[in-house]
Amino acid sequence: MIISYHGKAFIKVQQGDLVAAFNPLSKDSKMKTVRFGADLAMISLNHKDFNGAEMVSYANKTPFVIDGPGEYEVGGNFILGISSNGPEDLINTIYTFTIDNIRFCHLGAVAETELKNIKEEIGGVDVLCVPIGDNGTLKAKEAFKLANSLEPSIIIPILSGENDENLKVFLKEAGAGDIEATDKLTLKRKDLDGKEGEVVVLKEI
Questions:
Q1: CATH number at residue 27
Q2: Containing domain of residue 146, as a range?
Q3: β-strands 40-42, 64-66 pairing
Q4: Measured distance CA(47)–CA(9) in Å, rounded
Q5: Measured between alpha carbons, how far is residue 150 from residues 17, 84, 175 in Å?
Q6: Tens digits of per-residue pLDDT, 34-76?
Q7: What is the pTM assigned to this prediction?
C-alpha cells in the first residue's frame, strides 16, 4: 500500500493496480490540485475542497463515486461510510476499508468531539487519517484524543490549515517531537507489527 497526501483532506491510496482517492479537491477549489485516474473516489463532505471526483477521472479510469454513509462493495473491496457532524452543519462521512489486509480509516472533516459508538462502528484501525483544525474540524488536542481512542497503528494528520501551529500542537500531544515529513508512506501488513499510534507526517505533493 502506498499513501500520499495532496492537500486539505485529499489522500491517495494505491495497492497494485487499484487506486482510491479520498476527498479530491474540485476544480472550483482555491487550492492547487493534482489529477490522476482512480478506481474509487470517496467524498466525505459536499464542499469544493472535498468533492472533486471529476479530477480523478483520467485516462482510462473513471472512479466509482461514494459520497455518503452506507455499506458498499466495489470490485471485492468493502467500504463502510459512517455519518458524523462536519463543519458548517454539513454531514461528514467517515470511511473505512481494507486493502492488502490493512484496515484504513479516513475521518474526513469530522467536527464532533464525542462520537458515540464510533469505535464499535469503525472496528479495528491500522491506518487513520485525522483532521487537526482547519475549517471548523476538530482542534488539534481534540483530534489527538479521538485518534488515540481508536487505537490505530499509524496516525496521519491532515487538514492542519496554513498555520503550522495546529501540527505542532498535535505532535506535542502525541509526544512525537519533531518529525520529518515524508513524500509518501509505503506499507505492508508486516510493517505494522508493534506499532501503536505512531504519527507519520506526509508532505503535500
A1: 3.60.15.10
A2: 2-199
A3: parallel
A4: 11
A5: 29, 15, 17
A6: 999 999 999 999 999 999 999 999 988 999 999 999 999 998 8
A7: 0.95
